[in-house]
Amino acid sequence: MPQKKIGKWIALAAVLVLALVVVLFLKQYYDGRYAVADEFYAVVPLDYDITPYEDERAGRLKDYVLTGYNAAGEARELEFSVFVDSHGADLYPPGTYLKISVSRLLVLGARALDVADVPQGALQMIQAAFTPSTATTLPEYAEERSRQLSVKNSPSLKVSCTADGASLIYTYVYAANARETAEADAHLLDPVYRSQFRTDSQAFGELTAIFLEVSLDDGTIIFSQEYDTRVEFTYELK
After folding, report:
1. pLDDT per residue over 132-169, tens digit each?
2. How far is CA 227 from the centre of its chain?
3. With the CA atoms of 77, 189, 196 and 170 taken in that order, what torsion angle do they form, in degrees rounded to the nearest 10?
4. Please, are residues 69 and 41 in contact by the beta-carbon 8 Å criterion?
5. 223 shares a domain with 144
6. Residue 195 sits in a domain of what CATH number?
7. Is 126 among the domain residues?
8. pLDDT of 233
9. Is there a single domain that holds both residue 10 and residue 30?
10. Confidence at 11, pLDDT banded by 50, 70, 90
11. Where are the alpha helices (DSSP H) in the chain?
12. Residues 154 and 70 reside in one and the same domain
C-alpha cells in the first residue's frame, strides 16, 4: 500500500479515536450530572424550619438539607431547593417522607410519598435516626444506638456503639474469613458515618465526635476514621 494512503488511514484512525474519547467524556459528564444513579428516602424532621426566603432572580425559595438513605440503608447528605408559590403549597412540611432521585453529583428531583412506600432498608435507618432519644446520658444513647443497629447482626458480623467521654465509637466486627466483605463494606460505611455524626449531634448536643472502626474478629483493623464538624461532604465524578 502506498505510503500516502497509509498516512491517510492513520490520520482517519486518530480522528475516530479522538471522537470516541470525546463521546465517552461527554457521556460520563452527562451521566455523572443528569442520569439517575440511585434513589434515596428521607423525612423532614419535626423541628425543621420551612420558612422560605426571597431570591431576587428566582423568587421565593426554600433550601432543604437532609440525610437520606437508599434501599440498602446507605446514607447520603442531600441538598436541594424548591420554588414556593404564594400559598406555600410547594413546601414539604415537617414529617413529610420524600423520595429523592440523585445522580452521582446532584439531586435531580424530590417528591412526597407515603411511609408505606419507603423501602424497609431505608425506613429502618430513618426510624433509627429520627426516633426521639429517651437517653439522658451519652452511654444511654450509645445503648439505644446499639439496639437500633442490632438488626444488622449476623453470625459473621457484630455491630455495636459505645460511649467514650463525649464521643461515640461504632464498631463493625466481621468474621476473619469475611475480610473481602469487611473491606467492601468499609467503603460503603464511610459516607454513612459522615452523615451519622450530624444526626447524632442533633440528638445529643454534647457530642464532639464519632469514630468508626471496621475490624475482623482476629483483631485485624480494616478501617478506622473519626468524624466531627470538620468533615466535609464531597462527591466526585469518577
Report:
1. 677 889 999 999 888 878 877 889 999 999 999 999 99
2. 14
3. -170
4. yes
5. yes
6. 3.30.300
7. no
8. 41
9. yes
10. low
11. 3-34, 120-130, 138-149, 179-203
12. no
Helix (H, G, I), strand (E, B) or coil at 150: helix
pTM of the complete model: 0.54
- Count of domains forming the chain: 3
Long-range contacts of 201-208 (CB under 8 A, 24+ apart): 201/229, 202/45, 203/132, 203/133, 203/141, 204/133, 204/135, 204/138, 204/141, 206/138, 206/166, 207/138, 207/166, 207/167, 207/168, 208/165, 208/166, 208/167
Which structural domain range is residue 167 located in? 132-227
Both 26 and 53 in a single domain?
A: no
Q: Tell me how far apart the alpha carbons of residues 138 and 209 are, in angstroms, rounded to a whole number.
A: 12
pLDDT of residue 87: 54
pLDDT tens string 96-127: 999 999 998 889 999 999 999 999 989 888 88
Distance CA 177, CA 180 (A): 8
Tell how far CA 222 is from the center of its chain. 21
Whether 217 and 149 share a structural domain: yes
Q: How many CB atoms lie within 10 A of CB 106?
A: 16
> Cell numbers 432519644 correspond to what residue?
133
Q: What is the pLDDT of residues 13-72, one digit of tens each?
A: 666 666 666 655 555 544 555 687 899 999 998 778 888 888 777 678 899 988 899 998
